[in-house]
Write a structure and sequence with these properties.
The protein is α+β, with helices and mostly antiparallel strands and 176 residues long. 33% of the residues lie in helices and 31% in strands. It has a single domain, classed as Nuclear Transport Factor 2, Chain: A (Roll), CATH 3.10.450.50. Strands 1, 2, 3, 4, 5, 6 and 7 form a 7-stranded mixed beta sheet that branches. It is globular. The relative contact order is 0.18.
């Protein structure tokens, strides 16, 4: 599982780098207004999460057994307390558990939000985010994370296909 997660993160990083390293004539497969809609959807997800509106968040996800959220786990035997939760039932259970743990505050850095089209029907968003939560032994101290979401077009709507929340490790001490 850990190797799979690391491979997925590596692929996301490569995809992000290849877009930023694209030639000057590169054209995103999605127009600016569609990218803005996805950015607005990202902001809506943050608002709903801060309100603990699990029912509304459910509707933001792709309704598929392949929908995924990667987040802190309450199970200490999982991959260093982090795990993938596949399918809508598992995602809903995870979100309910987090909401029931107490205050949860997600503060994305919207100035650094990036949304790119991967195809006409798939997009990716990335934003640094500070999360304050007391779930699974966390002490409620605000901590830095990276939020990476893949979006899929379902009919005329954009839904979350995957949400990967990566903790940002502390900066190593500088040795003098």
């Amino acid at each position: 599982m850990r190797k799979t997660l690391l491979a997925a993160v590596g692929l996301i990083a490569l995809a992000s780098e290849s877009v930023s390293a694209a030639p000057a004539d590169y054209k995103d497969p999605l127009d600016p207004s569609t990218l803005a809609v996805i950015g607005s959807q990202f902001a809506k997800v943050m608002e709903l999460a801060n309100r603990h509106d699990v029912a509304a968040l459910h509707g933001m996800f792709w309704q598929s057994p392949s929908a995924l959220i990667v987040a802190k786990s309450a199970n200490p035997s999982s991959e260093r307390n982090w795990a993938g939760f596949w399918g809508n039932e598992a995602i809903d259970q995870k979100l309910r558990a987090i909401a029931a743990s107490g205050p949860v505050v997600l503060q994305p850095d919207f100035s650094r939000l990036q949304v790119v089209g991967l195809t006409q029907d798939v997009a990716e968003s990335y934003a640094p985010i500070t999360i304050t939560v007391s779930y699974a032994g966390q002490d409620g101290t605000p901590k830095p994370f990276l939020m990476i979401m893949n979006w899929i077009k379902v009919g005329t709507d954009w839904r979350i296909a995957s949400e990967v929340i990566l903790p940002v490790p502390p900066t190593p001490a500088v040795k003098e």
